[in-house]
Amino acid sequence: MTIFLGILLALFIFSVIVFFHELGHFSMAKRFWVKVDEFGIGIPPRAAQIGRDKSGTIYTLNWLPIGGFVKMKGEEMNEAGVHDPDSLASKSFWQQSAVILAGVFMNFVFAFVIFSTLFMIGIEPLGINTKFQTATETKLIPSFDEAVRIGLIKTDGIVLSPMTGSVAQKSGILENDILLSIDGQTINRPDEMIAQVKQSTVALDFVVRGTGGVRHVSVIPESGKIGSYVGYNVTEIRKDFRYKYGFLESLQEWGRETYRQSAMTLELLGSLVQKIVRPKAPAERTEAVKSLWGPIAIGNLFVNLLDAKVAVSVIFLIAALISINLGVFNLLPFPALDGGRFVFLIIHRIVGLFSKKKTLHGKIEQYIHIGGFSFLILLSIFVAYQDIVKLIFR
What we know:
Elements lengths: L1 H30 L4 E17 L5 E15 L20 H29 L22 H7 L2 E10 L4 H5 L5 E6 L2 E2 L3 H9 L5 E7 L2 E7 L8 E10 L9 H31 L4 H9 L4 H13 L4 H20 L6 H17 L7 H32 L1
Helix pairs in contact: 1-2, 1-8, 1-9, 2-6, 2-9, 2-10, 6-7, 6-9, 8-11
């Protein structure tokens, strides 16, 4: 029963996010008197027509619940509809831009409502990022170092784990020794210890606490290394940790967190593509492919969340993060995505400054978008296959 409810919850949340995205395109098109032929939730084939308004727009549900679309007159930017007053192609550059980017805007509005509300009533971080190294710090998924800094994680020194036959082991450092200081300088973070060791070629006085109490150990680094794993000695992960702000602060934190989550999404996407296209080792590509998540994996996530009986606020928070990720993904300058259409719009604008012709080759652009859409469908199928493999062999 939980599996069924989890899948339904995932489909519902994804449908709501897509609905708001397409509502952005739809409402802006209506605002500028662009004829909307169809407003569809899901990807065809069509399952049902659920209505038609006075302007002739039909509203449909489609069989593949992994997206949606708004079909507008003149969105292909070809010569046929450029002179029709109700065609998107006949509108000004700024009006066309507003229609194309309105969907992404609504994704961020959706996240704004959730983030600002949760920051006001109080929300705990979703988790700690221990898997991906990023230059961007976020409040909702902080790095381990950031979690220590804000007090989410309490630590008691730095724990050492020397490798067999290493300088550290030969010098007398034992498994799970707690590092207190080096040459009289208190060490609070792993990177502080690494920096001290790297720049030294002489004996260092390590003060450690472990078996036998507090001890002084003389260690002489070799090539800036001592051969020991180093990490925080975690004593507590606070269950009562919450972010909670006033009304104005919540609005500010929404802006900051949305920016940070967007930046982290772009950073992770860039890293993922680099690892798949130009991996440093074959294992890196395999790991990157395994890290891809699709609708099935997201559905499984919601099943696990229901099993764990998490708070409703966590469900809303994940929905906001999915909405931000969808918005950022759609801004990528790739054919068939909003970002790709916006790039072509800019090209049309530039060409229009130097030529009387309103558009570039409309058919070519249409084929490019069809190719991009086909690629995304194939990618979705591949990711879905990976999701199934991970569920079966986990």
